[in-house]
Amino acid sequence: MHTPIVRSGIFLVGGLVSISFREGLNEFKNRMFGKFNKKLVRDERKTYVQIGVVFMIISIGLFVYAVTH
Fold this sequence. Notes:
Elements: H1 3-20, H2 22-35, H3 45-68
Helix pairs in contact: 1-3, 2-3
């Protein structure tokens, strides 16, 4: 049905958010570690860009699958 198109959209939004708001995601992660008494403060902004690119590739693959089937 249209399930792969919906999943494609979800992965696309996830990829765009992780690329666009990587500073905010990094700050949020560090705050959450602080609340759980873990002092792991690292800069993972580059990792969020890589995850975003992977999500966008998955999104393209799902969209192509949905259109061809």
